[in-house]
Amino acid sequence: MATIFEVHTAHPDAQYAAQAAQAVFDLVDRLERELSRFLTNSDVARINGLAAGASTRVTPTTLECLVIARHLYDLTGGAFDVSIGTGLPLLELDPDGLVVRAREGGVRIDLGGIGKGYAVDLAAELLEEWDLGASLVHGGFSSVLVLEPPPALEGWALTLSDPAAPARLLARLSARQAALSASGLRKGDHIRDPRTGEAVRGRRAAWTLVPRPETAKADRAPREGPRMAAAAVADALTTAFMLLGLEEIESICAASPGLEAWVLPEAGADGSADLMHFAAPVEP
Amino acid sequence: MEGATFSRSAMIAITVMRVLVGWHFMYEGIAKLTSSSWSAAGYLRQARGPAAGFFRWLAAQPNLLAYADQITMWGLTIVGALLILGLFTRLSALAGIGFLVLFYAANPPFVGYFYSLPSEGSYLIVNKQLVELGALLVIMVTGSGKYAGLDRIVHALITRKPAPAVVSPAR
Amino acid sequence: MAGEEDKNKVMPPIAAGGPRKLDRRDVLKGLSTVPALGLFGYAWQQQRQYDQATLQATAAPAAAGDVQELNIALIGAGAQGQVLTDAMLRIPGLRFRAVCDVWTEYNLRRVVNILRRFKHEPNAYEDYREMLDKEKELDAVVIATPDFWHAPHTVECLKAGKHVYCEKEMSNTLEGARSMVAAARETGKLLQIGHQRRSNPRYLHCYEKLLNEAKLLGRIVTINGQWNRAVAADLGAPDRYAIPEERLKQYGFKNMHQFRNWRWYKGLGGGPIVDLGSHQIDIYTWFLGTNPSAVMASGGLLYYDPATHEWYDTVMVVYDYQTPQGPVKAYYQTQTTNGSQGYFENFMGDQGTLLISESELNYAGKIYRDPNAPAWDEWIQKGYISAPKLQELQSQEEKSGAIADVRESVSPDEHTVPVVLRDPYHQPHLQNFFDAVRGKAKLNCPPEVGYESAVSVLKVNEAIDAKSILAFKPEDFHI
Ligand SMILES: NC(=O)c1ccc[n+]([C@@H]2O[C@H](COP(=O)([O-])OP(=O)(O)OC[C@H]3O[C@@H](n4cnc5c(N)ncnc54)[C@H](O)[C@@H]3O)[C@@H](O)[C@H]2O)c1
Is A51 touching B (CB cutoff 8 A)? Predict the structure, then answer.
C-alpha cells in the first residue's frame, strides 16, 4: 500500500512483540497483493478489466472489503465511492461464491480509500490473537486503531491537528477500542466529489471515530467473520464527510451511537476556522 | 473563395490531402470502435486549460460520457470515410473541425502546461491537431469533393435540372 | 455554391446551373478516391491480423470446457497452504473434502473456517494417516508441509491411490526425493512438484517462443540471478495457540520456535538457498535444456543467531553447464540481510539479454537486443515481443554538439515480453495439475523434473561445506 504501517504494543517479551509485528507486516503484504490496482494479477486489477457480463473470483478478504465498500456507498449516498463515479452498483458481489460480476464494462475501482483501514482492522484482530490486547496500529498515520490502553492509562492519547498548520492543535482525545481516521487537504491538494466530478470546496479536514463492536473478542476462532471493520468504516466515512453537507453528517452520526465526527471548514475571511463536532446525543 | 482560381495540380494536391486527413480520422474512429475498453474518460480527466472544468465534469457523468464516446467513435469514422470518398465534403470537413476544436481545447499546448503522458513531439500553442484543423479548413472552402469525389457525381445529378445546387448544407 | 465557375477555367465544366449530363469524366473523377477506401480496408485487415497474432502469441491456453468435479484434500495449512487454498478457491470443479494439519489450534481451524464459509465441508484431521484411512473418495491431495515431511506424505498419499501436488523443495534429502519418484512410478499416479514458474505463461512464452523458436539470445554464455531479502524477525506464534510439547515431538519438532522456523534447521529444511534458490535454479536448467556439470559455492551464517539458525543466511553459487552450444557459467546469490534488487533471473547471450522474474511488478520480462544482433522485426510483427522502447540516444549528442557520443557501448534496444499473468501466482500450476488429473494436460513438473532440480540445489550446501568444486555425473540426475 506504499505506506507506513506501525504497531505499538506493550508486552514484557520484546521478541514476542517483534514476531507479532512481523506477522502483521506479512498480512499487510498479502492484502497488498490482492488489493493493489497496479499489480496485474491482483483481484482489483482483474475486476477493473472485466468486460460487460464477465465475472472473476476473488479471495475472501477482497470480497469482504468490497462488501464493506458497497455498504458505505449506500450509507453515504455515493459520497464514498471506490469506483470514483464509474458505477460501483454495476458490480454484483456474490459473497458465497466469491464472485464479482460486472453488469457493464468500464467500472474501475481503487480501494485506496478503504484498504488501509481494512488492513488495520485485520492487523488488530491478529494482535488480539497474539494476546497483545494493549496495542495501537496505524497505516500511514491517517488510519489509527487503538485496542486496550497501556497499563495504568485510561486510553491512548490522540490529537487532531490542522493539516495546513500542523502545529495548531485542534483537539485531544483519549480513546480505547476505537478507530480514528483522518482526511485533510494541504495546500494544493484536492478531493473530487465522485457524484459530480467537481472539486470539493469549503472543507479543510475531517476526522471520524468509530468504536469497535463489543462482540466477544477472546473466544472467537481465528479469522471468523463477521469482521469488526471499524477502521475501514472510519476511513470511508471520513472521505465522505469531506463532501457531505453538515446536516447529512449530523444525521449519520445521530443514527449511529458511538460514532463521532469532526469537521474543519475552510478558513473564513479572517483566516480562522473552528472545529465542528458531531455525535449522537448521549442517552440518559 | 469566390473569385479564386485553382489549377489542376492544386486541386489534386488538395484531394490528396483530403484523403490523408480522412484516412487518419477513419482509423482513429475504427481503432476506438474495435477496442473493447476505449472511453474518452481518461483523456477528459486529464484535461488542462481554460475549458478543463467542463471536460472533467463531462468525464464524471456516466450517461453523458457514454453518448460522448459513441459520438466520438462513430463521428470520427464517418467523417473519415466521407472525406476519403469526397462525399458531403464541406459538411464533413466542418464536423471534423468541430472534433478537432474539442480535442485541442481539452489539452491545448499552452505555455506552462505539462502532460502526464510524454508526448511524441514538441509543441507550443500549435500542435498536430491544429495543423490538421488548418488542412480541413482548406478542404472545406475549396469543396474538394466536387473536383475528385462522389460530390462531383451527386452534384452533376442534382444539377441536371436548372435548380440551385445545394449539395452541402455546410453554409 | 462557390467556386464552380472559377474552376471552369481550368477544369471541365461541372455545374453552371444549366442542364447537363453526367459524363464519363465526372464518374471517373467522382470515383477516383474510392480505391483509397479499399486500401484502407486492406491496411486495417493487416493491422487486425497483427493484433490477432499478438494476442494468440501471448494468450494462455483455453481452460478445459466441462469440469469433472474432483474431491481434494490439503495437508499443511500454513502460509503456503493458505496461498494455495486461495488459488484453488478460484479454480472451478474442486471440492475440498479434508484438511490436515498438526497445528489444529490455529492453522487447521483457520483454513477449515474459510472453506466452510465458501460452502465446502471439509473434515479436519491432525494425522494424515487417519485422513487417508477415512477419506476414501479423494481424487487428489495437495501437500504444503515443511520439506522434511514431503516424502512421507507424498509416498503414503500415492500409495493410497491419490494424485499428489507437492510443494517444492521436493524433499530435503535425495533419498526422500527418490522414494517419491519410485512411488509415483509404482502406483501410476500423478505427482506434480510445486515449481510454479514452469506453468507461468510468461516463463512458458520465453522458453517456447523467445528461446527455442526465435532464439533471440543467440548463444547463452552466462546467467546471473538472485533473491535478496531484508532482515526479518523470526516467525513466532500466538502464545495461546502454542502446540503442546508432546505433539511437537511426535511430529519431529523440538519446540515452537523450530516448528515455525523449520527452514533454518538441518534435517528439516535447507535454508534460503533451498527455500528461494530452488525456484530460480530450476529455471536455469529448464531454459538451458541440460543439467549442470559442476558447482562451486561459498556461504555462511553471517548475521543471524547460530542457536536458532543452522543453515547459511548468505550463499553465492556458480554452476557450470555444458550445453550443445557450448559451456555456460551461471551465478546465483541469496542473502537475507538486505533486499536490494529483490529477485530476478538474467540470461545473457551473445545476441541479447533476457531479464525476468515471477513478480508482476519488478523485472516482469524485458529483453534487450545486442546492437550487433540481426534485427528482431519479424518477432515484433508476430507479437512475440513488444516494439523497442525509444532510446534517448540523440539527446547526449545534441547537447555536446559532438558527432557521436563516445561511450563504452551503445545501449541495446529494450523490448518487453508481452505476457502478463492475471491470476494468482500459483493458479496456473495448480490448474495444470488438475487438468492432468482429468486427463486433459501433461504435467509441467513431473517428479523426474523435480528430482533433477533437487539434485542441483541440494548439492550447494554440500559444496559450501566441501569448499571445493563438486562435479555432477549425468547419472546423478537419473533414477
Ligand atoms: N512455491 C512457492 O512459492 C512456495 C512458497 C512458500 C512455501 N513453499 C513451500 O511450502 C511448504 C510449506 O511452507 P510454509 O511457508 O507454508 O510453512 P509453514 O510452516 O507456514 O506451514 C507448514 C504447515 O504444515 C503443518 N505441518 C507440519 N508438519 C505436519 C505434518 N506432519 N502433518 C500435517 N501438517 C503438518 C504446520 O502445522 C504448518 O501449518 C514448504 O515446503 C515450502 O518450501 C512454496
Answer: yes
pLDDT per residue as tens digits for the range C210-233:
999 999 999 999 999 999 999 999
**In a domain? residue C442:** no
For the CA of C196, the nearest atom of ligand 1: 1
User: What confidence tier does C260 reach under pLDDT thresholds 50, 70, 90?
Assistant: very high
**Best residue for ligand 1 mutational test, from C154, C167, C343 (most atoms within 8 Å of Cβ):** C167
Give domain status of residue B16, yes or no: yes
User: Quick check: is B2 in a domain?
Assistant: no
Q: Tell me the per-residue pLDDT of A51-96, one tens digit each, with 9 for 90 and over.
A: 888 899 888 889 889 999 998 898 888 889 998 888 899 999 988 7
Q: Residue B24: inside a domain, yes or no?
A: yes
Q: Which residues form the domain of B139?
A: 8-159
pTM score: 0.81
Q: Look up the ipTM and state it.
A: 0.84
Question: What residues flank ligand 1, with Cβ below 6 Å?
Answer: C 75-81, 100-103, 107, 128, 144-147, 149, 167-169, 194, 196, 251, 275
Please report the pLDDT score of residue A1 as a whole number. 52
Taking CA atoms, A153 is separated from A51, A137, A174, A176, C408, in Å, by: 54, 17, 9, 10, 65
d(C-alpha C451, C-alpha C445), whole Å: 10
Give the tens place of pLDDT for each residue, B76-133. Answer: 999 999 999 999 999 999 999 999 999 998 878 777 665 434 456 777 888 889 999 9
Domain boundaries, chain A: 150-279
Q: Domain A150-279 classified CATH 3.10.520.10?
A: yes
